[in-house]
Amino acid sequence: MGRDQTFEALLSEHGAMLRRIASGYEADRERRRELEQEILLAVWRAAPQHRGEAPLRAFIARVAHNRAVTHVAREAAEPRRQPLDEAAPSGDPTPHDCAETRDLHLRLEQAVRALPLSLRQPALLTLEGFTPAEIAEMLGLNANAVSIRLTRAKAALRRALNPDDPAPEVRA
């Protein structure tokens, strides 16, 4: 299998997961696409380092999350400039969109992005279908720490989505 075919296979099998990871870290469409490209390049460059100690999917997810974290840190260090015409909300919902579902989806995305990185990583990896044990291995934590972080992430998301609910505060 040639390099082009290998890349196409990687993209075909793992591209959707990589796009979801990018969307968990970047809200802006242009910056998200840039992050997706950075992630693809990082995964492609790191692929020869995979020694089979972890499943390929877990290895790829770890590389992607590492790249996303680096991207977020770099973006945080740079001042943001946004043209005024882009500052307004874009587009009306399509006729097929349900307003309530769209609002909930948007609030959920914002709530996930607002999570501290220590809670966001395990939450996003869980959404990708990884087990707490796999997440622990990827993040260099023990399974108990992952479970605690997931519990805190869920509580934070519940509070963000149901602000009137008197749920107790959970620290990050």
Please state the average pLDDT score: 80
**H-E string:** HHHHHHHH
Rg calc: 18 Å
Q: Mind telling me the CATH class of the largest domain?
A: Mainly Alpha
Number of strands: 0
The total of helices stands at 8
Overall shape: it is globular
CATH superfamily of the largest domain: RNA polymerase sigma factor, region 2, helix turn helix motif
Which architecture of the largest domain per CATH? Orthogonal Bundle
Q: Find the CATH topology of the largest domain.
A: Rna Polymerase Sigma Factor, Chain: A
Major β-sheet annotation: none
Which strand-content bin applies to the residues?
Answer: under 5%
The residue fraction in helices comes out at over 70%
Task: Give the total of domains.
Answer: 2
Low-confidence stretches: none
Helix/sheet category:
mainly alpha
The separation of the N and C termini measures 46 Å
